[in-house]
Amino acid sequence: MTAHALHGDLESTALYDLPGPRAQRRHFLYGIASTALILGLLGWLLYLLFDTNQFTAAKWSPFTYQGIQELLLRGLGNTLKAFVYAAVLSLVLGAVLATGRLSVHRPVRWLSTLCVEFFRAMPVLVMIFFIFVALKVQPLPALVAGLTLYNGSVLAEVFRTGINSVEKGQREAAYALGMRKTQVMSYVLAPQGVRAMMPTIISQLVVALKDTSLGYLITYEEFLHAGKLIASNLDYDLPFIPVVMIISPIYIGMCMLLSWFATWVAKRERRSPKTTAVDIDIDTADPGTALPGRI
């Protein structure tokens, strides 16, 4: 047995004992029982849908109308527009608040901490309603502002944690080379912190995307609001379940796409950075020749 194979065997058994024949049979039975339970729940759900006539043509025919299709597409476009605005502004606000929390000036650090803790603890819906009702802001700006204040405060903590995760020695080495604080943050800390922050940032953006559905409570014509109009304004067979069956997969698909992107980024960032070897001809190198990377 080679040393590499022995190392692999040690890694596979270091944290737990490999299951024996009885344990393997038991796990196999657990898998069959779980699969049967899931299939049973799905079958029961389909039975309820068919039993309540949710798949009749009368409930699904409205979605063939051009007006309803345009209403859904317009609502989806408004959802994506609100998400893009909220995502960009949340990233900007998070960066500003994180910079304030990392400031050496105590008043700036205290003010930034107060803003982060306040907006992070405040429910998103309360902020949206306050901006919409008390400040009399239009639905789209009110929704974007509420999402920005909450997600920006959460992202500020993500940014601050990512910056602080960089080894202290690298910061000290940068200062020793004569770099200013702005240069240390821009060229040393932030690029390395992004590696640790990126999956969490994207996961928080998934939360922002889902929270855009709160816009229907302030009459913003987003995707969920469009589905609500379709389900409540038709005069026959109120197609609530068909509307949910159309809207939910689209919401889930968009969130899964962002989650998949976060997973892809996490796997990519877990890979160890590789350095490129530089060939040096020792025979022809002069004693005073500077090595690559040296000043």
Major pleated sheet: none
Radius of gyration: 28 Å
The beta-strand count equals: 0
Average pLDDT score: 81
List keywords for this structure.
295 residues; mainly alpha; 11 helices; 74% helix; 0% strand; flat; disordered C terminus
Task: Give a structural overview.
The chain is mainly alpha-helical and 295 residues long. It has eleven helices and no strands. Helix 4 runs antiparallel to helix 5, helix 7 packs across helix 9 and helix 10 (223-233) runs antiparallel to helix 11. The two termini are 47 Å apart.
Topology diagram in text:
Blueprint: H1 3-13, H2 21-51, H3 57-60, H4 66-101, H5 106-121, H6 124-134, H7 139-164, H8 168-176, H9 181-211, H10 223-233, H11 240-270
Helix pairs in contact: 4-5, 4-7, 4-10, 5-7, 6-7, 7-9, 8-9, 9-11, 10-11
